[in-house]
Amino acid sequence: MRATTTQADTKARGLSRKPFAWTFTTPLYVGSSLNPINSAIIATALVAIATELHVSVGSTAVLVSSLYLASAVAQPTAGRLAEVLGARRILLSGIVLVMLGGLVGGLGQDLAMLTVARILVGLGTSAAFPCAMVLIRRRAEEAGLDAPPGGVLGGIAIAGMATSAVGPPIGGLLVGAAGWRWAFLINIPVTVIALAMAVRWLPKDPVLERGHSGFRQVADRIDLPGVLGFAMSMTGLVIFLMALPHVEWFALAAFVLTAVPTVVWELRKTAPFFDFRALAANGPLARTYLRQALTLLGVYSVLYGMAQWMESAHGMSTVTVGLLLLPMGAVSALLSRPLASRNLVRGPLIASAVTMLIGSAGIMLLTSRSPAIAIMLVSLVFGVTSAASTIGNQTALYLTAPPDQIGTAAGLFRTFGYLGSIASAVICSIVFRDGASDHGLHILGIALVAAGLAVLLLTVPRRLMSRDTSRRTDTPQPPALATTPAAENPTPDTPDTREPDQGEPRVSTTPLPAIAPERTALLAMDFQNGIVPMAADADALVERVKGAIADVRAAGGTIAYVRVAFTEDDWAAIPETNKAFAAVGTAKMLHHEDPATQIDERVTPEEGDIVVRKIRFGSVSTTDLHQQLSDRGIDTLVLTGISTSGVVLSTLIDAADRDYRVYVLSDGVADPDPEAHQVLVDKVFPSRGHLIDTAQLRELLQSA
Fold it and tell me: Which of 175, 306, 465, 528 places its Cα 20 to 30 Å from the Cα of 569?
């Protein structure tokens, strides 16, 4: 396709300059800190609560588990509501619930009231992360940005990590100075501030259409039966897991009896709350959930398990244990921002898996006679694991989740994280059932090695196997060009103008500069469902490009996808002076959520790839593609796309002006107008780039 869109209107142009100002991000950071700080701060108040209410310390564990349970259930539900009713509305409602929970807990006179308060806090704080992801995604689309806003996502991660780290010290000061009730009452001033900032600075949600705001309409849009089924089955599962190693048969039965009909219902539903089919088809997203659960299993096993072992087997005080584990949170927070700013996925995820394996091996070597420095080093390694995993998985979530389901996906992401943390408590209780001994710690290390290997397998081999499969396909290869005396000694700056046989791609016969794969990106431009059929012999074209993508991946290069798609604001902003696009805006063509604008599934993006949505002819002028390429150190581009006279021509000229070394795959580009295609390939492209075919690309990569 030759067309893309502009920045929408004056508002959109302003957003493109500074879409994520501090006034927008600060309420999101504060909201995202509410859940982790409430998770951490209560730990310092349990003994005091038990003493004043005349209950056992063990019975106060319900105050911890109730928040975990409420959060695991409520996160995806809040995300779904944010998608349907508006993220700002749901975020404000969540903040009010936290405020109410703080008030009920602060005035509570028995354990039952405190449990209700913790459930309210869990429900309310669950709105923050999924609503933040919806608001961030919406703001990025309004600003015309397809790349994840790494700095903002890093800020969200840091808000969670930092508050988790400072929660216990703050809780200790509050409880010691003012009493345990302030573990609840602290929510009131914090939520008042958060509420004021959110009301003042967050953009209002679109007005709900009449006929779509009634209870029945909302219930149908959010799939209320699916939400309730998920909530009941998840409740049964969490209660079952938290009771282990004791088997809670009633909870297990409740899980099975609610999960089975829920799955059946969701599979039959046109727009389900939990789209099992879409998740099964979206392998990268499913792997992101699993990686998050397994990595948090490891991180929290260190926090829970090593803390118990240090106190029991090593004889350390609680203060010493806290000091030895504190650097773990500090390292996580310090690494998060620089990692997030680069929008990397695969690198951080591999680093997360490798450091998890190293740290787990370190746990297996620790004994009650190990020096404190050795214990601190192990915790520091897991600090790297925590940061790399959080940033890599969070960015992967942003890239792989469907834009219109980012709230639900973000909620499920957090739910899987809770399951991982709950599983860590279960594992610790099993390995330390006879006491926190060295032997139990070593068994824990073995379990974490297995979890680390699983994380590594979810990150590396699947990608490699997809490369191998792609390279073994029966892709028709272009016939080799016969050489002529003139071609054997070409003039370096003179294009080869021999007339090719029918169907034979034109290629360069001049000496070609070498390709450094780590500095090379292949651009797959406009290979989307509504455009691919415009090309002659489209299936063969797609298969050739698919093979080229696989070759570049295998060599360690970068793949970037460019698609043309419009938002409503984009249509409205197209001026009548624009000959190519005025008709697009008038006819409301190529909406960004329309199937026609989605990338062809045969060349679908993978984790770590760049994906941008353009709003004019070229791939660079209306996207942040150049910045993303620069951040990765890319100085060489390989162009493929439809059409030759549109996106390929415009991108080639722009890239050449920006001093990229450019290769054009002659058998990877096509145009509805054969004559225009031939003139460009013969007369124009050789003066600005190197013309090669897919076979030559493979040779250049193999010789690198």
Answer: 528
Tokens 């090695």 -> residue: 449
Please tell me the predicted confidence (pLDDT) of residue 140. 83
> Residue 459 and residue 385: Cα distance in Å, rounded?
14
Query: Would you list the DSSP string of 139-152?
Result: HHHHTT--S--HHH
209-246: pLDDT as tens digits? 665 566 777 788 788 898 888 889 988 888 888 777 78
**Cα 605 vs. chain centroid, distance in angstroms?**
14
For the CA atoms of 404, 405, 411, 416, the dihedral, rounded to the nearest 10 degrees, stands at -140
Q: Which of these, 306, 8, 304, lies nearest to 145 by C-alpha position?
A: 8
Quote the pLDDT of residue 668: 95
pTM equals: 0.62
DSSP 347-411: HHHHHHHHHHHHHHHHHHH--TTS-HHHHHHHHHHHHHHHHHHHHHHHHHHHHHS-GGGHHHHHH
Q: What's the rounded Cα separation, in Å, for the pair 199 and 237? A: 37
- Give CA–CA dist 74/407, Å, rounded: 12
Going from the C-alpha of 550 to that of each of 358, 447, 465, 537, 557, the distances in angstroms are: 31, 35, 10, 20, 10
Give the DSSP H/E element, type plus range, for residue 648.
none
pLDDT digits (tens, 9 = 90+) for 41-99: 776 677 788 888 888 766 777 887 788 888 888 889 999 899 888 899 999 999 999 99
For 509, residues 6+ apart whose C-beta sits below 8 A from its C-beta are 481, 483, 487, 490, 496
For residue 669, list its beta bridge partners: 641
Q: Which DSSP string corresponds to 30-87? A: HHHHHHHHHHHHGGGTHHHHHHHHT--TGGGGHHHHHHHHHHHHHHHHHHHHHHHH-H
User: Between β-strands 558-564 and 636-642, what pairing exists: parallel, antiparallel or unpaired?
Assistant: unpaired
Contacts of 88 (CB under 8 A, 6+ apart): 131, 135, 198, 202, 203, 204, 205
Residue 483 has pLDDT above 70, yes or no: no
Answer for the pair 195, 95: CB distance below 8 angstroms, yes or no: yes
pLDDT tier at 656, thresholds 50, 70, 90: very high
Structure token pair of residue 165: 């780290």
Mind giving me the DSSP string for 649-682?
HHHHHHHHHTT-EEEEEEEEEE-S-HHHHHHIII
Distance in angstroms (rounded) separating the CA atoms of residues 66 and 118: 6
Structure tokens at 293: 């659960």
Q: To 10 degrees, what angle do helices 150-178 and 318-341 make?
A: 160
pLDDT of residue 481: 28
Helix axis angle for 461-471 and 438-459, nearest 10°, is 30
Whole-number Cα distances in Å, 316 to 39, 320, 369, 370, 372: 24, 6, 12, 12, 10
Bridge partner list, 690 = 663
- 590 close to 641: Cβ distance less than 8 angstroms: no
What is the maximum span of the chain, computed from C-alpha positions, in angstroms?
99
Query: 3-class SS at 335?
Result: helix
State the Cα–Cα distance between residues 335 and 341, nearest whole angstrom: 10
Q: Helices 128-142 and 406-431, interaxial angle, to 10°?
A: 140
Task: Report whether 555 contacts 470 (CB < 8 A).
Answer: no
